[in-house]
Design a protein that fits this description.
single chain
Length: 292
């Protein structure tokens, strides 16, 4: 165990009828970091110690991932956002700074709209606003092509069966294959992600996030012509070479945010931004969270 890891504490909390595992370090205002697919809390390993010098950092495994409970349902954005709202309350806080990447970013966007009273500040790392993603998939051929995996995941049973046949190559391809700074994802690192996804029920639960997102009753909500505006100060960090999400998804976000808003595009960086350029992400997050 490294010196950094020895300072991390692991806990479980019951929230919104689900038991979540989380890692925590530090004291002060609450900062919650939300991971994406197919990750778990470990994707924030570079951010935890940096932020913990100034804040109480809490990094949950999302519902269905790694050591969190893996129920058959509850993977819609309303429920996932309620999981995090409950986590804030169970930790004894009224509000938190929320930082989300990929699917965790979609949850963060939704949390900011549905439960604005729970947020201090919002930071999004390479994560599409759910409304923009639906519009991109249905109206932009480039984003539709980039999102082919989301559509493939809608087939019951087959995607997880295919992935399980060669999980090691799947993990390597998703992380190292899609990164710009490939050396970040060593064999040791990809094996850690593989072990988390091998836990019983983890893979199907991870895919269920995507399945429930595209259920008609869920994605139709994203066509709301007058969505609730984001009222928290918002920072968006975007790896310019993201192969999954087009940079076009960052256009027009000012119409959804009624608060101070910063967009920073990071060159020579792919989708896995907090792992590919951790020092840049740490600096930007600290500058943003400490702005007066």
């Amino acid at each position: 165990m490294s010196l950094l890891e020895s300072q991390w504490q692991h806990f479980f909390v019951d929230t919104n009828n689900v038991r979540l595992h989380y890692v925590t370090q530090g004291e002060g205002e609450l900062v919650i970091l939300l991971h994406g697919f197919p990750e778990f809390w470990y994707s924030w390993r570079y951010q935890i110690p940096a932020l913990a010098r100034h804040y109480k950092v809490v990094v949950p495994d999302l519902r269905g991932y790694n050591d969190s409970e893996k129920p058959d349902n509850g993977y819609d954005l309303d429920t996932l956002a309620a999981d995090i709202r409950g986590l804030i309350e169970r930790l004894g806080y009224v509000k938190a700074h929320i930082v989300g990447h990929d699917w965790g970013g979609a949850i963060a966007w939704h949390l900011a709209q549905k439960f604005p009273q729970c947020l201090n500040r919002l930071a999004i790392l390479n994560a599409a606003h759910p409304q923009k993603l639906i519009q991109g998939i249905t109206g932009n051929i480039d984003q539709l092509w980039r999102s082919w995996y989301i559509l493939a995941f809608q087939v019951p049973g087959i995607p997880e069966w295919l992935i399980q046949q060669n999980l090691r190559e799947f993990i390597k391809g998703v992380f190292q294959g899609q990164a710009i700074r490939k050396s970040v994802f060593t064999t040791e690192i990809t094996q850690i992600y593989q072990a988390a996804l091998e836990k019983p029920g983890a893979l199907v639960s991870a895919i269920n996030h995507y399945r429930q997102f595209l259920l008609p009753q869920n994605w139709l909500k994203s066509f709301n012509p007058k969505p609730s505006l984001i009222t928290a100060p918002t920072l968006i960090l975007w790896g310019k070479e993201d192969s999954f999400l087009s940079q076009k998804l960052t256009e027009g976000l000012d119409k959804l945010i009624a608060a101070p808003f910063w967009l920073k595009v990071i060159p020579e960086c792919g989708h896995w931004i907090q792992q590919e350029v951790p020092h840049t992400v740490n600096r930007e997050l600290l500058d943003f969270l400490r702005k007066k």
